[in-house]
């Protein structure tokens, strides 16, 4: 049988027989003992509880905030903040105006930082990241979660 | 010890019988070690990665859902652990000649292999396997050696079933070509 005629399947009795004759690699002799020693040192199974899932979600949220902080620092002027939003509904307009004002405030702060010394900018970024990392670590340490 | 026995042991471990976990380690240590060494290609590193696998599995045991076999779940942890180690260093293997992959006769290879002594045959197979990239060795290992089905390999590796089938087809061709190459090179 030529290569082109080979049936498109994963089964191959010949290969299977050959592979069956190949021995498994042997794990070292003290392998099981080594693991059991580590386990008896206090490692415990960790259940995936709603609490741990909440903590994980909270962790991701903090990470996202930290990332947003860095983005804000790096791109102090976002083009969309300069758009003139004309809205028909007063309430929505008020909310948007306030939000835009908040963003403008942030933008001005960022612009100030950006126009100032880059050393200050770097220190400010590192400061925010360190602060968020501490909060994040505190949250994670409260209930360790295993991510496979 | 089958899947049912695995579940009994897991229940015992989760109920606080730590020592029962040794039975699971003993049952799967060689399979895990063989799988991991195919990926990391270094005994010391394979030992560390295999130990990590069993520790991670123990810690996550409460999360093991019986939707999959315990072995499939364990191999997935082993695969991820080993792969994360290979990302640190790229392993290069001497590939099987592409020309040979398109020009061999399966029947001839089978016939010539049958003429070899068992020991020779197995040595040749091991040499051919070593010529495959680590991901292909691992697929062969899981499918033929660890008896995992295509859908289970998909769970372990994250590859789609169709992708696995295509890869397996290609690997089989490479293996036959590799056997052909080795037979031609070996003294008559």
Mind explaining what this structure looks like?
- The complex is a heterodimer of chains A (148) and B (188).
- With 148 residues, chain A is mostly helical.
- Chain A has helices at 13-21, 31-40, 50-74, 90-115, 118-142.
- Residues 1-8 and 142-148 of chain A have low confidence and may be disordered.
- The mean pLDDT of chain B is 86.
- Chains A and B meet through α1 and α2 of A and α2, α3, α4, α6 and α7 of B.
Quick overview of this protein structure:
The complex is a heterodimer of chains A (148) and B (188). Chain A has five helices and no strands. Chain A has helices spanning 13-21, 31-40, 50-74, 90-115, 118-142.
List the helices and strands and how they pair.
The complex is a heterodimer of chains A (148) and B (188).
Chain A: H1 13-21, H2 31-40, H3 50-74, H4 90-115, H5 118-142
Helix pairs in contact in A: 3-5
Chain B: H1 3-14, H2 21-40, H3 43-59, H4 70-86, H5 98-102, H6 106-114, H7 118-131, H8 134-145, H9 150-157, H10 161-185
Helix pairs in contact in B: 2-3, 2-4, 2-8, 3-4, 4-9, 6-10, 7-10
């Amino acid at each position: 049988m030529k290569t082109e005629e080979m049936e498109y399947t994963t089964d191959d009795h010949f290969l299977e027989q050959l592979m069956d004759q190949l021995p498994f690699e042997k794990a070292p002799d003290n392998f099981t003992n080594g693991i059991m020693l580590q386990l008896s040192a206090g490692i415990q199974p960790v259940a995936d509880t709603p609490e741990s899932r909440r903590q994980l979600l909270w962790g991701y949220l903090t990470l996202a905030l930290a990332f947003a902080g860095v983005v804000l620092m790096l791109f102090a002027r976002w083009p969309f903040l300069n758009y003139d939003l004309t809205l028909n509904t007063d309430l929505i307009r008020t909310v948007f105006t306030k939000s835009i004002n908040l963003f403008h405030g942030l933008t001005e702060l960022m612009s100030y930082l950006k126009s100032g010394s880059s050393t200050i900018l770097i220190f400010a970024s590192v400061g925010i990241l360190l602060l968020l990392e501490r909060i994040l670590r505190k949250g994670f340490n409260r209930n360790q979660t295993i991510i496979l | 010890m089958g899947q049912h026995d695995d579940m009994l042991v897991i229940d015992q471990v989760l109920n606080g019988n730590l020592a029962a976990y040794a039975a699971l380690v003993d049952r799967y240590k060689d399979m895990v070690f063989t799988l991991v060494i195919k990926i990391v290609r270094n005994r010391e590193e394979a030992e560390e990665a295999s130990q990590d696998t069993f520790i991670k599995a123990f810690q996550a045991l409460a999360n093991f859902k019986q939707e999959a076999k315990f072995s499939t779940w364990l191999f997935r942890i082993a695969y991820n652990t080993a792969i994360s180690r290979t990302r640190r260093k790229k392993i290069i293997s001497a590939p099987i000649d592409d020309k040979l992959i398109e020009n061999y006769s399966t029947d001839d290879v089978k016939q010539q292999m049958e003429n070899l002594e068992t020991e020779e045959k197995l040595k040749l197979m091991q040499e051919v396997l070593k010529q495959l990239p680590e991901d292909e060795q691992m697929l062969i290992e899981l499918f033929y050696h660890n008896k995992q089905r295509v859908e289970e390999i998909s769970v372990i590796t994250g590859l789609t079933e169709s992708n696995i089938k295509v890869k397996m087809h290609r690997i089989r061709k490479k293996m036959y070509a590799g056997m052909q190459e080795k037979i031609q090179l070996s003294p008559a």
